[in-house]
Each structure stands twice: as structure tokens, then as C-alpha cells.
Design goal:
The complex is a heterodimer of chains A (199) and B (183). With 199 residues, chain A is mostly helical. Chain A is built from nine helices and one strand. The longest helix of chain A is centred in the middle third of the chain and has 30 residues. Chain A is globular. Chain B is an all-alpha fold. Classes of the chains: A mainly alpha (199), B mainly alpha (183). At the A-B interface, α3, α4, β1, α6 and α7 of A face α1, β1 and α2 of B. β1 of chain A pairs antiparallel with β1 of chain B.
């Protein structure tokens, strides 16, 4: 089992595959504010990160703002990247943290606004649909209604294709615990899908 | 078996869900990130400005409250002064109390000066009386001395007179004795 991460530097130790010198060089150029480095990060990883953030937030909320926040954090912490893991993995970890922080913050604000009766429903930014499959809407609705921790686990495991060991290391829990949580998240998603299908 | 079925079902659904959307293209994302970074770098100055404005507002509010309290005290000036001063002092407003204390201090100083003056006068009178008494005593002693002198002169005169009488008597006796012894 992996030890829990204590900082962003540790995240780079989970080397599964390494793009090598180019990732280190890009991170170094990013940390020094070199011209074009940020554009290259966006070109190479922008779409994946944007999609990841959208999935983690179930396409609710300001996904664009979170993308900006992610890039800002990556820029600020680029000097801590040691190149022992692919830059894509390192950026994925930052995206997970940014979304988790945003979820906590928005929950606090949402509760305050609900209390004062100034907001009835949260603003939803719908993604650009490329499929007309009606099952997509049901899945979208079910994922939106799942808890953030369940959704995070399902996205990392099924969409990001991360291993249980890698996820448990990120979330500072044992692999057994993660397996149980993944099973429960699946069950809850299934129930939500059934509830949606039944009207 | 059910779990495996769920796993397959969820995997397929989530992959379809992921593939069914296309992330929107954000124009000038890098430039927006740079601008945001630039704005955040200036945040401490904004914070200082906000804190300064709050401090100024606080001072203005405090001054306003203070002026309100002053006007209240001037409105109530027609009432019993000592009661107002005592009441305001209890409430923590010592401004009028300080003014009264100043007046009272001046009055006390004036009275003290008068008292000192009176004390000096009394001391001078006492001293004069003491000297007068001494003079009287001296006069009395002088009078006694004169009387003593008069008595001494009288005694001396008496003695002189008696001595003269005795001398005459002695001479007469001598003369008589001689006459008696003659045949």
C-alpha cells in the first residue's frame, strides 16, 4: 500500500510511466514563467484536464474557473515537480484537489444562500453534447445527485482508469477501504439510475 | 456475479457519459490565467486598502458618537450640575467632570491662599501680644526695683536718724557718768 501524500511533491513519486525529460523541461519552463510554457501545457493536457474537472463536478458549476484555478496552482507549484511521474498524473492530482476544495467551498456558500433565501437552485453549466443517447441524460442526472466523494471515486476508477492502489494512496485510505467504498458508490449510482428510469 | 454485472454496467455507462460531451474551448485561457495571477499578486495591496478604509470608517464613527455625547451633555447643562457630573462620571464620560475638577481646584487654591494669609496675620498678632506681655513684665520688674530702692533709701534714712539719736544718747550718758563720778 502506498503511503498517503503529504504534499504536491510527493505526488510525483507515483511513477507509473514517465514522459521523461520533456515533462521536466516543460515544468521547469513553467516554473520560470517562460514564454509559451503555459500554452504548451494547455495544448498537451488542457482537454483532458477540462474533461476531468467537468466529470468530477458533474458539469455543474464554473468548470472554466476551476480550469483556471488548476493552471494557476500548476504554475505556482511547477518548481516542485521532480519528473518522477508523468506531468499528466501530477496535473490530475491537482485537478482532484481543486475540485474537492471547490465542492467544500460551494457547499458552504450554498448553505448560507439557502438559509437567507437568496438562491433556490445552483447554477448549472451544461456541457457541449456530442451524443444524443438518452442514457447520457440519465447518467448525468445520477452523477449530479451522487455525493462528491462517490463521484470522485467512480471518475478516477472508471474514466481515468486509475488503480485502486493509486486512488487509495491519493485519498489516504487502504485499498480494502477503497474497494468497499467503490462497491457502495456503484450501488448508489445504480439506485439513482433506477430511480431516474422509474420516473 | 451481480457485482461483476454492476461493474460492467457502470463502466460502460460512465465511459459513454465521458465520451458524450466535449469540453468547451476556452479562448485565451493562458492569457486569462496570467491576468488572474497578476491580479492575485496585487491582492495584498487590495487587502491593505480595504483595511485602511475600514480603519477610517471606524475613526469617523467613533468621532460621530463622541460628538453626539457632547451635544447630549450641553442639552442637559441646565440641570443640577453636580448630579450631571456624577452621573456622567459613572457612565465613563469624564469630560465635564474634568472641567468641574479644574474649577474646584482653582477655588480650593484661592481658599488656601486666604487661609495662609489669615494664618500669617494671626501669627503676627500672637507675636505682638507676646512682646506686649514681655514689656508689661519688664515694667513690673522695674516698678518692683524702684520700690526696693525706695525701701532701701527709707531704711538708710531711718538708720541714719537712729544712729544720730543713739550717738546723742551715748554722748549724753557719758557726760552724765562723768558728772556722777565727780565728787
Amino acid at each position: 500500500m502506498h503511503a498517503p501524500h503529504s504534499s504536491l511533491e510527493d505526488l510525483s513519486n507515483d511513477a507509473v510511466e514517465n514522459d521523461g525529460e520533456s515533462d521536466r523541461d516543460l515544468a521547469h519552463r513553467l516554473s520560470t514563467g517562460s514564454s509559451g510554457a503555459l500554452e504548451e501545457v494547455i495544448r498537451l493536457h488542457g482537454e483532458h484536464l477540462h474533461r476531468l474537472i467537468g466529470n468530477l463536478m458533474a458539469w455543474n458549476g464554473e468548470v472554466d474557473d476551476l480550469m483556471q484555478e488548476l493552471l494557476l496552482k500548476a504554475w505556482k507549484n511547477a518548481s516542485s515537480y521532480r519528473g518522477e511521474a508523468p506531468l499528466r498524473h501530477w496535473l490530475t492530482q491537482i485537478a482532484v484537489r481543486v475540485c474537492r476544495n471547490q465542492h467544500r467551498a460551494s457547499r458552504r456558500w450554498f448553505n448560507h444562500l439557502i438559509r437567507f433565501g437568496k438562491l433556490e437552485t445552483a447554477k448549472t453549466n451544461g456541457p457541449e453534447r456530442t451524443s444524443d443517447d438518452p442514457r447520457w441524460d440519465a447518467t448525468q442526472q445520477a452523477m449530479s445527485r451522487l455525493s462528491h466523494s462517490d463521484r470522485e471515486l467512480l471518475v478516477l476508477f472508471y474514466i481515468e482508469q486509475q488503480s485502486i492502489e493509486s486512488i487509495s494512496a491519493q485519498l489516504a485510505a487502504s485499498a480494502e477501504t477503497m474497494n468497499v467504498r467503490l462497491h457502495r458508490a456503484r450501488q448508489r449510482l445504480k439506485k439513482l439510475l433506477e430511480a431516474t428510469a422509474n420516473g | 456475479m451481480d457485482d461483476l454485472h454492476d461493474h460492467t454496467l457502470v463502466s460502460g455507462l460512465l465511459n459513454d457519459w465521458n465520451q458524450g460531451v466535449s469540453p468547451p474551448v476556452v479562448p485565451n485561457l493562458a492569457e486569462r490565467v496570467r491576468q488572474t495571477q497578476s491580479v492575485r499578486a496585487k491582492r495584498p495591496y487590495h487587502a491593505i486598502a480595504v483595511v485602511s478604509m475600514l480603519a477610517v470608517l471606524g475613526i469617523v464613527s467613533w468621532l460621530g458618537l463622541r460628538s453626539l455625547r457632547s451635544s447630549d451633555s450641553s442639552i442637559a447643562s441646565s440641570e443640577n450640575h453636580a448630579d450631571i457630573v456624577a452621573s456622567k462620571t459613572q457612565k465613563g464620560d469624564t469630560s465635564e467632570h474634568s472641567e468641574s475638577m479644574s474649577d474646584w481646584n482653582q477655588e480650593a487654591e484661592r481658599l488656601l491662599a486666604e487661609l495662609k494669609s489669615a494664618t500669617h496675620q494671626m501669627e503676627a498678632e500672637t507675636l505682638a501680644l507676646e512682646w506686649e506681655l514681655k514689656i508689661v513684665k519688664a515694667k513690673a520688674r522695674l516698678r518692683e526695683a524702684k520700690l526696693e530702692q525706695i525701701r532701701a533709701e527709707q531704711a538708710r534714712a531711718w538708720l541714719i536718724a537712729n544712729v544720730a539719736v543713739l550717738s546723742e544718747n551715748e554722748a549724753s550718758a557719758i557726760r552724765n557718768r562723768g558728772k556722777i563720778g565727780q565728787p
